Amino acid sequence: MTIEKCINAFAVDDVIFEEGSTGRELFVVLEGEVEIAKMNGASKTSITKLGKGEFFGEMAVIDGSVRSATAIASAPNTRVMRINHARFVYLVSQQPAFALMVMDALSKRLRASNAVTYRAAQS
């Protein structure tokens, strides 16, 4: 498969994937910006915004679970590269730096989530 087939372009407010959907792909932002949000009917709570070089969708590609949030293009001409499960496993096994980068990002995201949960519990 050529790399061009792994790249998708999105306009502002295009949904890349929805919370609760299945998917075995991780995405890397090549251009633009992606908002990760929790949806509750018409209400949206933004979790974070990711830019060039950042990735999302890693939990589903690692454990095969459903998507935990919705990913939405939040800038014009947002382009993302899809990395399927097989390619992800290959990269992790052949490129220790890639595996460490994913673990570092997961750790930072978990710490941020823990901080939000702790603050909410203290309120």
Overall description:
This protein has 123 residues and is α+β, with helices and mostly antiparallel strands. Helices cover 35% and strands 34% of the residues. It is built from 3 helices and 8 strands; from the N terminus they run ββββββαββαα. The strands form 2 sheets. It has a 4-stranded antiparallel β-sheet. Helix 2 (85-94) packs across helix 3. The mean pLDDT is 92.
Keywords:
123 residues; alpha+beta; four-stranded antiparallel sheet; 8 strands
Mean pLDDT over the full residue set = 92
| Strand content bin | 25-35%
| Major sheet attributes | 4 strands, antiparallel
**Can you list the strand order of the major beta sheet?**
1-8-3-6
Q: Which structural class do you get from the secondary structure elements?
A: alpha+beta
Overall outline? globular
Discrete helix count: 3
Report, as a whole number of angstroms, the end-to-end distance.
Answer: 51 Å
Domain Cyclic nucleotide-binding: 10-92
InterPro entries: cNMP-bd_CS, cNMP-bd_dom, cNMP-bd_dom_sf, Env_Response_Regulators, RmlC-like_jellyroll
Protein name: Cyclic nucleotide-binding domain-containing protein
Pfam family, one: cNMP_binding
Describe the structure concisely for a colleague.
With 123 residues, the chain is α+β, with helices and mostly antiparallel strands. It is built from 3 helices and 8 strands, in the order E-E-E-E-E-E-H-E-E-H-H.
Topology:
Layout: E1 7-10, E2 15-17, E3 25-31, E4 34-40, E5 43-50, E6 55-56, H1 58-63, E7 70-73, E8 78-84, H2 85-94, H3 96-122
Antiparallel strand pairs: 1-8, 2-7, 3-6, 3-8, 4-5, 4-7
Helix pairs in contact: 2-3
Protein name: Cyclic nucleotide-binding domain-containing protein
InterPro entries: cNMP-bd_CS (IPR018488), cNMP-bd_dom (IPR000595), cNMP-bd_dom_sf (IPR018490), Env_Response_Regulators (IPR050397), RmlC-like_jellyroll (IPR014710)
Domain Cyclic nucleotide-binding: 10-92
